[in-house]
Amino acid sequence: MATVTKQQLRLAEVISFITNPVILLVAATGFVIYRYADNLTEFMQWLVAAIGLLVVPGMLYSIVIWAKERKLDLDISDRQDRIVPLMLSTLGALVGGYLVSARLENTNLLFMSNVLVAYLICLTIITLIWKISLHAATMTAMVTILVLFSGSIFLWFYLFLIPIIWARLVLKQHTPAQLGAGIALGVSVTLVAYKVFGG
Q1: 1 occurs within a structural domain
Q2: Which of 30, 54, 153, 179 is 20 to 30 A from 82, alpha carbon to alpha carbon?
Q3: For the chain, what is the domain count?
Q4: What is the pTM of this model?
């Protein structure tokens, strides 16, 4: 790769931060909850519960790791450090899926919950042996769900992967193979879940 300027490095950092899987997950979850909540109170209750289940346990673990290593690493660059947060998020997604199925009769919400569980399980298993791009996988899964539910008019959203791929390569966080695997996982897990759970 050619020499990277300070401006390019800064832009890559901004893109990586904005498309951080945790931020994308919270934004997507908030959008879905907002769409199906009956009122603002219900929206806030479900959003707080979702963040508490999906994000907080893994974040607390990451803070402990950062304190131990005396270094803030929002990307959790070390593959080994990603395993426990992914396991905690998977557990949170399973609990959240149970709550959704027990309290709400909405097939779309249940489908999205099942996709999230399947996606997190696959990411956790792969991360046990290899580093895969969580940025690429998360964005791809989100766009694939959008296309499945809202039509091919949103296929152009896959173009958002271009700056993500560029940023992750510039920051030397991933190889092309890890980014390609993330994209393939995001599409395949979502499509298989759609086939199995019926959307």
Answers
A1: no
A2: 30
A3: 1
A4: 0.89
